[in-house]
Amino acid sequence: MGRPGASDITRRLAEICGSSFARLAGPADEVAGRPARWVAVPGDAPAAGRVLRLAADHELAVVPRGAGTKIDWGAAPDRVDIVLDTGRLAGFGHRPDDAPEVEVGAGTPMRAVQARLGRGGQWLPLDPPSPGATLGGVIAANEPGPLRHRHGGPASHLVRLSYLDADGELATVPVDGAAAAGGDPVRLLCGSQGGLGLLVAATLRVQAVPACRYWVTCPVRHPAEARDLVQVVTTADLDPAAIEADLPAAPALSPFVHPAHPSVAGRGVWTGSLVVLLEGDPADVAERARQLTALLGPTASGAFQPPPWWGRYPFGPGDVALRIEAPPDHLHSPLYVLQDVARAVYPEASGVPVPARGSLAAGVLYAALAGPLAAGDRVTRIVDSLRQTLLPRGGRCVVVAAPPQVRAAVDFRAGVPVPAGLPEAKERVDPHRRLAPGRLPGGL
Asked: How many other CB atoms are there within 10 angstroms of residue 209's CB atom?
């Protein structure tokens, strides 16, 4: 069936969603720089299904959107006809306060999930760094936070997922142990960015809120020192809940060289910190904190509150955001290369910090290219150099987000592997490529 006029689609979306919840798209409704034509905010799953069927009838592309905290992450879709906003697909299923599971609508903000569970002394041990993120957005982006070290990512907490396929048909996927560990289909739905279906609701396992949480901080002078301290922590029997590093990457010396180089021997070249979170019974946490502090040395200190940067990305609007992945033993190497190359492509970069932050023990760091470094040609040279360093070490560098003026010069799909089974799954649930077309790895 051909495409009707814009006014007709607007009218039909208003009939489905309500006149206040369907409109022509505006400048703020772009998806990774790609403009949309309409915005629809259905009130429940059946209405969302009708929006998808309307799109199918008229060959319109649909891109789901939660709070929009990661709407500019990754590759731009090939086209965006309808942005399907999940803000009204929110709320909680009926449950006793002490139930071990909770059903949550995809549009529910994570803060609301934690607040609701907290009234009964429970929580969901999932802490995505995106402020204001919805549960559906966290699952769709497969976004973990510092707690990934002990508790895993989004799939680790799932019992069931409910989603709508490209034809608006509702499916519920039960999650067994294999799927929670990364098996199909949950492995594919987590991180699919709406390309395999519109997430409607999820049932998740919850836990009792830890009686005590304590953060132990140790300053570090350079990435190699942070790597060594992570090895100390992970080989000790201390059961940390999270291990995070903040490496501001503002070198104290003009030439950024390895700390073992004779010219800088004995002097700090990079000031940052390694922070370890301990959770559990107060007496047990106190004893583990004492042991950890002794291991880390006299500069270590502890607090019952995290440092201000904890659980936050190092990048902001206007920055180029990079995700660097490598085995923990090798993750420090690209950080030296990052600063060296940044100075090479922009000689005045000696005063421009390249902050990096993340979970060294999990082999994941995020870095930000800001200001003069966030230019298309410079970004390309920096990323290419990082990839050459990471490839023989079994790692990769992915461009997560970039400002509009840089997007055209950056390949967002490079370095992103196509998961096994993804092409077959896309063909099965969306053969006509109507769900976020081109957004998935490989341009699917």
From this structure: 15
